[in-house]
TrEMBL record, chain A:
Residues 2-246 form the ABC transporter domain. One of its GO terms (molecular function) is ATP binding. It comes from Terrilactibacillus laevilacticus. The keyword Transport applies. It comes from the Bacteria. The keyword Membrane applies. This is Phosphonate ABC transporter ATP-binding protein. Keywords: ATP-binding, Cell membrane, Membrane, Nucleotide-binding, Phosphonate transport, Translocase, Transport. The gene is phnC.
UniProtKB/TrEMBL annotation, chain B:
PANTHER family: ABC TRANSPORT SYSTEM PERMEASE PROTEIN P69 (PTHR30043:SF1), PHOSPHONATES TRANSPORT SYSTEM PERMEASE PROTEIN (PTHR30043). The chain crosses the membrane at residues 72-92, 113-132, 178-197, 203-221, 233-251. Residues 68-251 form the ABC transmembrane type-1 domain. It comes from Terrilactibacillus laevilacticus. Keywords: Cell membrane, Membrane, Transmembrane, Transmembrane helix, Transport. Pfam families: BPD_transp_1. This is Phosphonate ABC transporter, permease protein PhnE. It is found in: Cell membrane.
Length: 256, 259
């Protein structure tokens, strides 16, 4: 369970990224965060694993405060949270397998990992992770030989190899075409269902949010303005989250 | 009105620049007493020297093979030492690896300072300390290579994609793992390429380090010149040319493959 307690974030230039956010996300949920760009979706997501530091309040994950975690404890917290980025963030010159194995570094000593001496079980874990996103045969290809959608699925495999309890996906499909978007979202959803891994996804496509989410959270100006089931998230709700009627290009369906 | 003023100003700037360049050129040539006429007067002398160098003393080739190999060895060892010391400096000088200016500014300063010293001067400094011979040459080339490689490598590190670094932070990697999985794979090819490039420079530099007593073929070049053995001089020059061209070719091929 992830719990935000009065979380606020003020950027050095004075803009408020998050304003007194309180929310609980339960284990196994598939939460989609929606909002305009700049509304604070990304800040909200990245504050969970402290890629962004918050200014006040506290975030508690499975009973432990990541906000107060220092040094090794923080690394341990992060190890349990997989992250998927808009630009995949793979090392393009490395092999797919090495990229997936990089998710395992938190489990081993520094010396072992820098020499690349992963135990056999880790290789098996990494290959299994690739199998789950249907990319097992690409394990020894260089990452930049893969298409965008495939690269994104490699980054999902990295999160799986991490054996994370939570997956955070920050606009995972924003640089993909509609077809690969569906593959990536299907993979995320399937993994969420099969393993009960808590999944939080930032999206700006309204129809995708409705299709995949079990719960939708609307963010506007750093505040949570909607939190409810897909059925409750009507067009009117989206209009109020966006502060204007939903546009055609915010529907993925319109692009196909 | 305003546009006209600006136009005039830019014209003035160009004129001043031109005048400055002419003054600098004139002052330099007057100061070093260089003149076109003395260059032309020297032409016949150059011609006769060139004739004296022919034909090269072919038997001398085998005699200078050992110093030639020593020159290459000096370049190899010097480049390797320099490259190894360059690694921590390149990382510690990079803003995206070390977030604190108190660390990366001093490292950059040391790096830039060392880079300003020419290799011949370094060799001249090391010869009194380490004695005449290739040790002084190796040290000079190490320090020189360090300056070149560290500078190029640090610029490569600062230009890498931030994405993988962010990803490594997110998986809970510690700083060393973060460097080895986020930074190293992104710069290793450039690093090797810069090291090879530096090796090319070092072979050329090593060939003249003997002039200040720092080992290698330069010593023989100096001696034969002093003894007016011009046919041997040309042998050395041809030999050096061949070796440099071959090494450059191999190194270039390797570097092409890397990118």
């Amino acid at each position: 369970m992830i719990e935000f307690k009065d979380v606020s974030k003020v950027y050095p230039n004075g803009t408020k990224g998050l304003n007194n956010v309180n929310i609980k996300i339960n284990k196994g949920e598939f939460v989609v965060i929606v909002g305009l760009s700049g509304a604070g979706k990304s800040t909200l997501l990245r504050s969970i694993n402290r890629l962004h530091e918050i200014t006040s309040g506290e975030i508690i994950i499975d009973g432990k405060s990541i906000t107060k975690a220092r040094g090794k404890a923080l690394l341990r917290c992060r190890r349990d949270i997989g992250m998927i980025f808009q630009n995949f963030n793979l090392v393009k010159r490395s092999t797919v397998l090495r990229n997936v194995l990089s998710g395992r570094v938190g489990y081993h000593s520094t010396i072992r990992t820098i020499l690349g001496l992963f135990p056999k079980e880790d290789i098996t874990i990494a290959l299994n992770a690739l199998k789950r996103v249907n990319l097992e045969e690409k394990a020894y290809s260089r990452a930049d030989e893969l298409s965008g959608g495939q690269q994104q699925r490699v980054s999902i495999a990295r999160a799986l190899a991490q054996e994370a309890k939570i997956i955070l996906a920050d606009e995972p499909v924003a640089s993909l075409d509609p077809l690969t978007t569906k593959q990536v979202m299907d993979d995320l959803k399937r993994i969420n269902k099969e393993t009960g891994i808590t999944t939080i996804v930032n999206l700006h496509f309204v129809d995708l949010a409705r299709q995949y989410a079990t719960r939708i959270v609307g963010v506007r100006a750093g505040e949570i303005v909607f939190d409810g089931s897909v059925e409750d998230a009507t067009d009117d709700v989206f209009s109020s989250i966006y502060g204007r009627p939903v546009k055609q290009d915010e529907m993925l369906g319109a692009k196909v | 009105m305003d546009a006209l003023k600006k136009r005039r100003l830019s014209l003035m700037k160009r004129l001043v620049t031109l005048i400055l360049i002419i003054i600098i050129l004139w002052a330099s040539s007057a100061g070093s007493e260089v003149s076109i006429s003395s260059l032309i007067d020297g032409l016949p002398g150059m011609g006769s020297l060139f004739l004296e160098m022919l034909p090269p003393d072919w038997s001398y080739f085998s005699y200078v093979t050992d110093p030639m190999l020593e020159t290459i060895r000096m370049a190899i060892i010097g480049t390797t030492y320099g490259a190894i010391i360059a690694i921590p400096f390149a990382l510690l000088s990079s803003r995206n690896v070390v977030k604190w200016p108190v660390i990366y500014y001093p490292f950059r300063f040391v790096m830039n300072l060392i880079r300003t010293i020419p290799e011949l001067l370094l060799a001249a400094l090391f010869v009194p300390v380490l004695g005449i011979g290739d040790n002084a040459g190796i040290m000079a080339l190490s320090v020189f290579s360090f300056g070149v490689i560290a500078k190029l490598a640090y610029e490569a590190v600062e230009a890498i994609d931030n994405g993988p670094l962010e990803a490594m932070t997110a998986v809970g990697a510690n700083k060393i793992q973060w460097i080895f999985y986020g930074v190293v794979p992104q710069v290793i090819a450039s690093f090797v390429s810069y090291t090879l490039y530096c090796f090319e420079i070092n072979v050329r530099a090593a060939a003249i380090l003997g002039y200040v007593g720092a080992g290698g073929i330069g010593l023989y070049l100096n001696n034969t010149l002093k003894l007016f053995q011009y046919q041997r001089v040309s042998t050395i020059i041809i030999y050096t040319l061949i070796v440099v061209v071959i090494i450059d070719m191999i190194s270039n091929k390797c570097r092409e493959k890397l990118i």
